C-alpha cells in the first residue's frame, strides 16, 4: 500500500515536471562539448576576419555553426508532439534567443554608421539592415557584391548576417516539414527521406562550388544544417577510447582545414561537406569528452553568438576608415569583441530568453516593429539622398555635384540584367541623323557622360550598349572575372556586330577596361573588330582607359570627409605604379599597331589629360572622379571629356544642315 502511494506520488511529480517543462518550452540536456565546439567555430571565424595567421580558411567556422544548429533544432523538435502548439513554442523560443542581442548590435551599428558612412553607403546600409531583419541578407549581398571575399565586401557592416538569414530560412521551412513528416512517416522512412534530400542538396552545392556567388545560396548551404539534423536522429555506440580518438581527429581535422583552405578554395561543395562530417563526428561522440568539457571553452561557446554579431561591424568600420592595424592591435580588438560579447550575453541574451511573452507579442516586438522601423529609415534616407549634411557642408557640396551625374535615366538608358546588358542608352541628335554606335563593358555605361560631352553640338545620334565584364571583340568570347559567362558575352558580341552591319553607323566606339582582358589571343582580336567596323563603312573609335591605382580611390579621397577633417591625403595615381603595368603596356602596343594599320581610326587618350609629369589626378576641384579602383564616375568622365575637347578639339565632325 505504501509502495503504491509512493509510486502514485512519483507519477504526480513527474507529471508536474513535464507540465513545467512544457510551459517553458522544450529543453535539452546541457552538453558542454557543444559549447566548446561553438567556441572553436567562433575563434576560427574571428581569427580569419582579423587576419591572424595561420588561419587562412577560418570561414569554415560558419559551417560548424550550421551543423550545430541543425542538430539542436532537430533535437528540440523531437520533444514537440503537437504541430499546432509545438511550432509557436519553437518560434517564440528562437526569436527570444536570437533577436534581442541582434537588435542591440544593429542599433549600435546604425548609430556608428550614421556618424561615418557616406550618403550612398548609409542608404545602402539601411537597406541591408532591412534585408537582415527580413532574413534575406544572403540574397541581398549576393546581388550587391562580386563575392564574399572581394575587396568591395570588407567594409559592409552587416555582411556577416548572410549566415543568420540562412539559419532563419531553415527555421521557417524545416520545423514545419519535419513535424509533418514525422506525423505521417515511420521513423525509418523519415530518416531515409531526410538522407535523400541531404544528398540531393550536397550534389547541388558541389555543382555550384566554383561559382563565387554560390557561397551565399540557401540551397547550397541547407545540406549542412540537414547533416546536423541527421546526427540528431542517430544513436551510435562506441568504446570510450575510440570516442576520444574520433573526437580528437575531428577537432584536429577542422583546425587543419582552417589553415589549408583559403578564399580561393572552391566552396561550399565537397570542401564544406568535409568540414560538416568532421563536425558531425565530434557531436556524435563528444559528450563528456574531457577536452571539450573545459569550463572556459564552454563559456566562450555560450557567448559565441554575441561575439559573431559584434566582431564584423568593428572590422568593417576600421576597413571603411582605411585604418591600418598590426597584429597586436588585432588581438586587442579581438579581446574587445569578447568583452562586448560577454556583456551582451549576461545582460541581453540571457534575460531575453527568460521573457514571459506570448507568441504574437514576441513576434511583434522583436520582428515586426524593427522591420517597419528599418524600412521607414531606409525610405527616408533614400528620399533624402542619405542625408549628406550629416558629414558637414563639404560632404553636402560634393554629394550635390556627384548626384547630378548619377541618374542612369539622364541619357534615356534602360537596363536588361537578364541578358547582361547593364545599360542601353540613346541620346543626342535626330532620329535620321548620323549614328555613333558605342559598345563595351561596364566602363561604357560610366562613360556615357564622356560620349555626351564629346558629341555635343555635332548632331550625332548616340546609341550606347554596355555589357558588364564582356570584351566586345569578335573571336574568342571572354568574360572578365566570370569564365562561366563567356557564352553570354560571345552571344552579345555576335548580336552587336550584326547590328552594326545592319545599321551602318557613321562611327563605332569601343570602350573597355582594356588591361584586364589578357592574354594576347583575346585582346589581339581588336584588329578583327576594327576590320569589321571598317567593312560596315564606319569610322572606328577607341577610348583608352583612365589611370588605375589598384586601390579604391573613392575611399581614399573621402577619408577626411568621414573623419570631419581638412583634406590632407593626396589621392593621386603614379603612372609608373599603375596596377597591371605589364598588361597596360601590352594593350598600348596592340592599340598602336591597330592605329598604324588604320589611319582613319580615332583614338581618345584619357590619360593625356588626366596625367601630367607621371601623376594622374583622382579628384577635380576637390571632388572625387572615381567610383572605385577603376571606374570613373559621371563627374570624372564628363570633366576629363571637357579637358580633352579643350586641348585636342572635337574628335567628331560637325554635321551641317542635318547631313
Describe the structure.
By secondary structure, this protein is of the alpha/beta class. 59% of the residues lie in helices and 7% in strands. It has 25 helices and twelve strands. The chain has a seven-stranded mixed β-sheet with strand order 1-2-4-3-5-6-8, with helices on both faces. Strand 9 (611-612) and strand 10 form a beta hairpin. Helix 4 packs parallel to helix 13. It is elongated, with a radius of gyration of 30 Å. Residues 1-25 have low confidence and may be disordered.
**Count of alpha/pi helices:** 25
List low-confidence stretches.
1-25
Straight-line distance between termini: 117 Å
- Estimate the mean pLDDT confidence: 87
Summarize the structure.
With 659 residues, this protein is α/β, with parallel strands linked by helices. Helices cover 59% and strands 7% of the residues.
List the helices and strands and how they pair.
Elements: H1 2-24, H2 32-49, H3 61-77, H4 83-116, H5 119-133, H6 137-144, H7 161-184, H8 187-208, H9 222-232, H10 240-260, H11 269-285, H12 295-302, H13 304-320, H14 327-353, H15 359-383, H16 393-403, E1 414-416, E2 421-428, E3 435-440, H17 442-446, H18 448-455, E4 461-467, H19 486-503, E5 507-511, H20 520-523, H21 526-535, E6 539-543, H22 553-562, E7 572-574, H23 581-597, E8 602-604, H24 607-610, E9 611-612, E10 615-617, E11 619-620, E12 623-624, H25 634-648
Parallel strand pairs: 3-4, 3-5, 5-6, 6-8
Antiparallel strand pairs: 1-2, 2-4, 7-10, 9-10, 11-12
Helix pairs in contact: 2-3, 2-12, 2-13, 3-7, 3-9, 3-11, 4-5, 4-7, 4-13, 4-14, 4-15, 5-6, 5-15, 6-7, 8-9, 9-11, 10-11, 13-14, 18-25
